[in-house]
């Protein structure tokens, strides 16, 4: 069935290998958002919260995301951004293990996750410590002092993928809480939070899920834990009865206790429209297509572009849905490639990153992209001042 390019509005003349960072616009997004503005918000005004179901959508639409990560309906909720969800999950995990003081993560984690963890630890001022080890060292570093193991499943730079099942089992054997960041996994690789018995899973919806810039994050909480947690971000919409306006906080008796404030209704509508693009598509099919694309990509680059050194694992089972390469002038090289219609991105210090998104990328796209990459690298077309000035977003 894949690809389903007709489900996306892709600009002509562009091969988009950055859907891992900001997905393209799904067909129907513009109409869906317009409908909310013109047919709901416009005529119904504040009545839309009830008439148009706006208040229920953070749970309803989250269930559509849940299907892709093995989360049953009612175990995920949307809201805020992923950095905020890191804070929520980690503060809950620390409350669950009050006798322990270590938060364990790895150097492949996304900086914001580590910043948020350190910020929470500093604010609590209770002797917590963030221990950051090499990705390969995680399993060995888990012991009975660790309160929470907090990892990003797929490394944003290299695409290296953790064996979450094994790590979660080890964490649980040592009595630690497992927090899994699925930013580069949801819609990219097969994940089953239920089977893996993950305690918390968090992720964003603007990468492989295509819900647009600033779209809400999601949080999954293991259903048997939900009601034992006192949310640290105790906003009114996580209250059991927000419209009773009680003086004290009482958390809702469901995943809704992980809501904070008013949902971003227009972005939730965009996510709902984006999830239509996933109808009839299962993750095993996506994963199989992704591996085919990445194998082709790596084989062709290794055969034709010796300047690029593979930064991703060569073994597909250890790799997410992206392929990355080291190149000392990677920023300039990527700008030159983008100028010729192949969009990837650059991650400091020297990583050229290409996202593989089988919903709208096929083997012909990969072959055409390689032709351009080969030409840019062989003829040093990147060696121009205009490609070397860094923009704010790389
Ligand atoms: C993209 C990404 C983020 C971004 O967080 P926001 O708060 O949504 O900006 C955080 N963590 C990881 C692992 C990411 O890949």
Report on the structure:
The structure is a single chain. The chain has eleven helices and 15 strands. The strands form four sheets. It has a seven-stranded mixed beta sheet, sandwiched between helices. Strands 11-12-15-14 form a four-stranded antiparallel beta sheet, with helices on one face. A two-stranded antiparallel sheet has the order 1-3. It has two domains: 5-25 and 282-388, Aspartate Aminotransferase, domain 1 (Alpha-Beta Complex); 53-278, 3-Layer(aba) Sandwich (Aspartate Aminotransferase, domain 2), CATH 3.40.640. 34% of the residues lie in helices and 15% in strands. It has helices at residues 29-44, 48-51, 57-66, 82-96, 111-124, 138-141, 164-173, 265-276, 283-304, 330-339, 363-378; strands spanning 8-9, 15-16, 25-26, 76-79, 102-106, 129-133, 146-152, 177-181, 200-203, 217-221, 309-310, 322-326, 342-343, 345-347, 351-355. It binds pyridoxal-5'-phosphate. Pyridoxal-5'-phosphate (PLP) binds at residues 81-83, 110, 112-113, 152, 156, 181, 183-184, 204, 217.
